[in-house]
Prior knowledge:
Strands 1, 2, 3, 4, 5, 6 and 7 form a seven-stranded mixed β-sheet that branches. The protein contains three helices and seven strands, in the order ββββαβββαα. The model has no long low-confidence stretch (mean pLDDT 90). The protein has helices at residues 52-64, 120-126, 132-142, and strands spanning 12-21, 24-30, 39-40, 43-45, 67-82, 88-103, 112-118. The N and C termini lie far apart (54 Å).
Amino acid sequence: MSQICRMPSLPIAAISCAVVREGRLLMVRRRNPPNAGRLALPGGKIEPGERLADAAERELREETGVIAGGLQPFTAMDIMERDEEGKLRFHYVVVVIRMVWRAGEPVADDDATHACWMDLEAIAAAGEDVCSTAAEVAMLLLGAGNQR
């Protein structure tokens, strides 16, 4: 029996973790949609009853093993994908949480196939291999005068 896949009736709440360390941003190569196979910020769905900070810490730990704190909402964005007929496949509302590295070196796990620190030059050189939202966040966080 075939299973019918239906679009959720509401957008899905998710977080992305923007962890900066010594002028580099923590990036992962995503295993699953959205942005499967591309470089992006670590993150994922917020579980029911989970606070933003708890979701960010959990997703970061699950995908990279890195521990970070200093949680601060940085920006929010819509991530939507449509099929060839224009029908909505998914809609995520993603809150990007700015985090400060505390401990650990990135090791890919869970939804990540690769994890590493990247400076703005490396992110720019990766071009289309980096999802547009991660590239935008990288420019805002690591652009001229913003590196820490």
